[in-house]
Specification:
The structure is a single chain. The protein is α+β, with helices and mostly antiparallel strands and about 300 residues long. It has 2 domains: about 140 residues, DNA integrity scanning protein, DisA, N-terminal domain (YojJ-like (1, 3-Layer(aba) Sandwich), CATH 3.40.1700; about 150 residues, DNA integrity scanning protein, DisA, N-terminal domain (YojJ-like (1). About 30% of the residues lie in helices and about 25% in strands. It is built from 9 helices and 15 strands. Strands 8, 9, 10, 11, 12, 13, 14 and 15 form an 8-stranded mixed beta sheet that branches. Strands 3-2-1-4-5-6-7 form a 7-stranded mixed beta sheet, sandwiched between helices. A hairpin with a 5-residue loop joins β2 and β3. α1 runs parallel beside α3. The protein starts with a helix and ends with a strand.
Length: about 300
């Protein structure tokens, strides 16, 4: 186990000349794993010379990229086989609604195979670990951190119940926040009360460009559409009913009393906190370093 973790940490620090390295490793009962995952076209044979686990992963990771195939490692830390992971699994799996593809697929594999699944995400310098159907921790910035998506989800449920927001729409924003965190993309989402007049609380950059948007339910937009909106400078604003109100919006909260801010908080996070205090609304801010912070009424609800 220690050798595997060290090998994956080493991969995190590597950069391919054309793109970051991505891959997937499934650790556990190999018979159970191989009964679930189909054989890959890439098969291991007796190597011409002995290679350590990290050497094998480094040599093969550009081919075994975690999108189609992944490594299977037994509980003794030995590379056993290469199996297909691009499969569709049918069943009533109770996954967090904050998990998106392909994270949901690896979560299911971890549950059905009773295995630990390690993935290097497209950002190229993070490891995600799935166990028992959920994302349990990540490695980034040289250290391991727990990821409690269930706790984050409970916070979003509580905020929706308190403010009467549409839960499915807020869950979608939470899921996209996590996707953007993996992609190293900063963003700011604000969910304002239904019917609130906010025209003087933000600068509409689209209007300045001679563009307007038709209010549309968030649930009718694809995740990638919302990511494209959110990754631009400014905030994405939705109302409590789940309708998109604006994007590329520069928030202009009214001056507010002293707020308890985290040391070193950046401009985006401070703006999100002040806007939530001013409007009495929910905001989600995603930092480019991967952190996600939820504010309500100017108070920090959760930090992931």
């Amino acid at each position: 186990m220690g050798n595997l973790v060290a090998a994956l940490e080493d991969l995190c620090q590597m950069r391919n000349e054309l793109r970051p390295i991505t891959t997937a490793v499934i650790l556990g009962d190999t018979e159970r794993i191989e009964a679930l995952l189909p054989e890959s076209e890439i098969r291991l044979t007796s190597p011409p010379r002995k290679l350590s686990l990290d050497q094998k992963l480094q040599r093969l990771a550009p081919v075994v990229d975690g999108e189609v195939a992944g490594f299977v490692v037994n509980r003794d830390g030995k590379l056993q086989s290469i199996r297909k992971v691009s499969i569709s699994l049918q069943g009533d799996f109770k996954l967090s609604p904050l998990l998106s593809h392909p994270a949901d697929r690896f979560a299911i594999i971890s549950s059905v195979a009773e295995a630990l699944v390690f993935t290097l995400d497209p950002g190229g310098n993070r490891i995600q670990v799935f166990s028992d159907g959920g994302l349990v921790c990540r490695y980034f910035d040289g250290g391991w951190r727990a990821d409690d998506l269930n706790a984050f989800h409970e916070v979003l449920i509580g905020a929706c119940e308190e403010k009467g927001y549409d839960l499915k729409s807020v869950e979608k924003l939470g899921r996209i926040a996590i996707q953007m965190s993996y992609m190293h993309l900063g963003a700011l989402f604000a969910v304002v009360p239904r019917g609130s007049d906010i025209h003087d609380r933000y600068e509409d950059c689209l209007k300045d460009l001679g563009i307007s948007i038709t209010p549309r339910p968030l649930l009718e937009l694809s995740d990638m559409e919302l990511i494209k909106f959110a990754k631009e400078d400014g905030a994405v604003i939705a109302n409590g009913s789940g309708f998109l109100r604006a994007f590329m919006a520069y928030l202009r909260p009214r001056s507010y009393g002293r707020l308890e801010t985290d040391p070193g908080a950046g401009a985006r996070r401070i703006t999100a906190q002040r806007f939530s205090a001013d409007l009495g609304c929910l905001t989600l801010v995603i930092s480019e370093d991967g952190g996600i912070t939820a504010f309500s009424d100017g108070k920090k609800l959760f930090k992931l």
